[in-house]
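for the writeup, i need someone to sanity check this before i put it in the appendix. the sequnce is what the collaborator sent (i think, or maybe the updated version? ugh). structure was predicted straight from it, no edits. if anything looks off just tell me and ill rerun, i have time this weekend
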Amino acid sequence: MAGQPVDVALVFAVDASDSMEDWEWRLEMSGIAAAFRAKSVQQVIAALPHRRVAVALVVWADAGQRADVSDWSLVDGAASAEAFAVRAEGWPRRVSGGTGMGEGIAAAVRLIQRAPFDARRKVIDVSGDGPEPLPLLSEAIVLMPQARAMAEKAGVTVNGLAILKDRPDLFDWYQDYVAAGPGAFVMRIKDARDFAPAIEQKVLRELQLNIARLSVP
């Protein structure tokens, strides 16, 4: 990436598959918005060397549908943080279907590779409530193993937030198949109602390199 230097290029890869009810998906998006309205996140950005980060959205669902991708937003203060928060909470749900996480992560990697910024670190923050299913043999899609390899080759860290709901094993699946790259970690919550405080803590970890390197018990 070339252009204006930023401390982090951060993509939120958000699950919009059919297993996420509309109110749950809205909690995901409003949780991202709340994180950037939080003083704790704005203060961390202000303390970074360049005092700015680039953020974007990739809303993914069925692997047969193209992920819904936003433009980049530059966050360098309260006003730009609020502008991104408004964008996130107002984003329409335009994709649906199955859990095509690999295609979503691949879209996020490509978005980072095309970003008009010189990023010190590149991070994908993926959230979801289910594992990626095995595809039919006739399907030619990017699955998580290929998506992880793409991310690692591009120097991108992939962190996960597993919404357990009825899948208590999902945390382990995220650790085995999703987390990738330097300092990668996975967090878990029981359901979407816990999303907002969890995503704020997750963003704080992702923005601060010394914290991002910590492992999760």
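The two ends are 34 Å apart (CA to CA). Confidence is low (pLDDT under 50) at residues 211-217.
thx in advance!!
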